[in-house]
Design goal:
This protein is of the alpha+beta class. The chain contains 4 helices and 8 strands, in the order ββββαβααβββα. It has helices at residues 32-43, 52-60, 69-85, 125-151, and strands spanning 3-6, 10-13, 18-21, 27-29, 50-51, 92-95, 99-102, 108-110. A hairpin with a 5-residue loop joins strand 3 (18-21) and strand 4 (27-29). Helix 1 crosses helix 3. It is elongated, with a radius of gyration of 25 Å. The N and C termini lie far apart (59 Å). InterPro entries: OmpR/PhoB-type_DNA-bd, Sig_transdc_resp-reg_C-effctor, WH-like_DNA-bd_sf.
């Protein structure tokens, strides 16, 4: 699963299905289909126009032939809303009767692992406490064994 920086201030995570605006800490939770659609658009951003048929085939697979134009229009509308709520306007540009394209003026950068240290997983205090207790018990058991050997 990849992560991308959109518009230099938002992080899109394919894994958590979220777009987070780093400036104002707004997090938008996306549906899996909207996240897949955004991933597809990012993957095909270099193309001048992404055909509607290509989008439906990629997102719905074999069922794409049965998906109406209204379903795709609704999906794109909701994806645009998610992006707008995160602070990214005009990421998707409609090309009438053909498809859509990604706005080339909005930068998209793949995130290299550990680029944002604040997002690394934190160790829970109870895990630290449990580990410490296990080490102490192990140490006490070892000390008791040495005392038993020394007594013989």
């Amino acid at each position: 699963m990849s992560r991308y920086i959109l518009n230099e201030n938002c992080i899109f995570s394919e894994e958590s299905l979220e777009i987070e605006n780093r400036d104002n800490a707004i997090k938008i939770k996306m549906t899996p289909m909207r996240a897949r659609c955004l991933s597809l658009l990012i993957a095909k951003q270099a193309e001048k126009v992404i055909n509607k048929g290509t989008i439906t085939a990629e997102l719905w697979g074999e069922r794409g032939q049965f998906v109406s134009d209204a379903n795709l229009t609704q999906l794109l509308y909701l994806l645009r809303k998610d992006l707008r709520d995160a602070g990214i306007n005009d990421f998707i540009i409609t090309v009438p009767r053909i498809g859509i394209r990604v706005n080339q003026e909005i930068p998209v950068t793949a995130v290299v692992a550990r680029q944002f240290p604040s997002e690394q997983k934190k160790i829970k205090p109870e895990t630290v406490l449990l580990s410490t207790l296990l080490c102490l018990l192990s140490l006490l058991a070892t000390m008791g064994l040495f005392q038993a050997i020394a007594a013989n």
